[in-house]
Write a structure and sequence with these properties.
Number of helices: 13
Largest sheet: 7 strands, mixed
Order of helices and strands: EHHEHEHEHEHEEEHEEHHEEHEEHHEH
Distance between the termini: 43 Å
Oligomer: single chain
Radius of gyration: 22 Å
Number of strands: 15
Structural class: alpha/beta
Helix content: 25-40%
């Protein structure tokens, strides 16, 4: 598959004269994904339920998609399994609720985790936090010291790649520490999956979403050890994942992984995420990572020296092309609106990493103020908000230049 600095042919449809720089939130579909989805819908039937030929064909494609995702995460069929979910948040909630917790068990997270990799663990276990350093990176010695001292820590849950800093953690080394102390490692790979390879040899569970890897059809994946997935715990149940229930309402579950796929499965989501995974593997991770590095270098080159623009994490060796910036003299919301009117799409907000924002900007909001905001329906104050430009495989240096020129116009009073 050809790959260069302009890869528009990979995509089903891109709007002319529109600079899309919100790929860390959601990505447009690959052409290969749309073709697979349309072909799938021509012969759609009930998955694992009907006896007709369309049901058989649909079920076969669904299970082939599962095999593709096993390959995508380098899973071992004797050891691991793939569960199709709605998205990463759904996956983490499923994993947290099924895990065999004992009273007092803990989950260790970092202080820069997305709320999706924080709140589900809070509902089922106690939380221990590993502080990051001044560069918002996890230090392995600090991580090991916490795990070593506390034998109640059963799960370490970390983002493989940050949706703010763009940095990727040393997964292999973290996994080595976890195994040393008999702890399971979960990787939130939402930002990692479209940019870097995932390897189940170095984690016990991983999840990611199709809509962040060029398959925006409501599909997600939870890949985990079968020993973990064999537990049901408080995970959702009802139809689809059981074969029978006794007169006293004791369910008899399907085998792993179907014991966690409740109701009628989202065949389109599974087919689309598998098609995207195949395309990413065909492009090649070296090509993808090189493209990311070039885009990130262009972001630093064109954005770092604009007056009244504060660019965070301008590391030239960043593995993922994300630019986080602030506009101290103008409301970030107004900046986002101005860019939108000029056909540039970025993200404005806190990106669901509230502790990171507070740490980065040295802020602290009293609990009473948070409650009053929720009651009134108002958004967080401007000082909590940042702007994020995140690139995908369709972006070029010219896209970054267009963004930079519009930010310069804002400085000149055009807003």
């Amino acid at each position: 598959m050809s790959f260069n600095d302009n890869n528009n042919e990979l995509f089903w449809h891109l709007h002319n004269n529109y600079v899309y720089l919100d790929n860390a939130a959601s990505t447009p579909p690959f052409r290969s994904v749309m073709e697979k989805v349309l072909n799938f819908m021509r012969n759609y039937g009930s998955i694992h339920r009907g006896a007709g030929i369309l049901s058989e064909l649909t079920t076969q494609q669904y299970e082939e998609a599962r095999k593709t995702m096993m390959k995508f995460v380098n899973a071992n069929s004797e050891r691991d399994a793939v569960v199709f979910t709605a998205n990463t948040t759904d996956s983490i909630n499923k994993l947290a609720s099924m895990y065999p917790w004992n009273p007092g068990d803990k989950t260790l997270i970092s202080d820069i985790e997305h709320s999706a990799n924080t709140l589900p663990w809070c509902k089922v276990s106690q939380i221990e936090v590993c502080p990051t350093n001044n560069a918002l990176e996890i230090e392995l010695d600090a991580l090991e010291e916490i795990i070593k001292k506390d034998n109640k820590i059963k799960v370490v849950a970390l983002a493989g790649t940050s949706n703010i800093t763009g940095r990727t953690i040393p997964v292999k080394e973290v996994y080595g520490i976890c195994k040393k102390y008999g702890v399971n490692l979960f990787i939130d790979a939402s930002q990692m999956a479209p940019h870097h390879p995932i390897n189940m040899d170095y984690c016990d569970a991983v999840s990611f979403s199709g809509h962040k890897m060029y398959a925006p059809f409501g599909g997600g994946v939870l890949a985990a050890r079968k020993s973990i997935l064999s537990h049901i715990g408080q995970a959702p149940t009802g139809g689809g994942n059981v074969v029978y229930y006794t007169p006293d309402y004791e369910p008899v579950y399907q085998e792993v992984p179907r014991n966690h796929e409740i109701g009628t499965q989202n065949g389109v989501g599974a087919i689309s995420i598998a098609a995207a995974a195949e395309t990413l593997m065909q492009i090649g991770w070296d090509n993808i990572e090189n493209h990311d590095k070039k885009i990130h270098e262009w972001m630093i080159k064109h954005l770092a020296d604009i007056p009244n623009i504060k660019l965070y994490f301008p590391q030239p060796d960043c593995e993922t092309s994300i630019a986080i910036f602030d506009t101290p003299t103008v409301s970030p919301i107004m900046v986002g609106d101005y860019l939108s009117r000029h056909r540039i799409g970025v993200r404005v907000g806190t990106f669901c990493v509230y502790r990171l924002i507070e740490k980065l900007k040295r802020l602290s909001m009293p609990h009473e103020m948070v409650k009053s905001l929720a009651i009134s329906g108002r958004s967080l104050p401007d000082e909590y908000l940042l702007l994020r430009a995140s690139s995908g495989l369709m972006n070029t240096e010219n896209d970054i230049i267009i963004l930079a020129n519009k930010l310069k116009e804002i400085n000149n009073g055009s807003i």
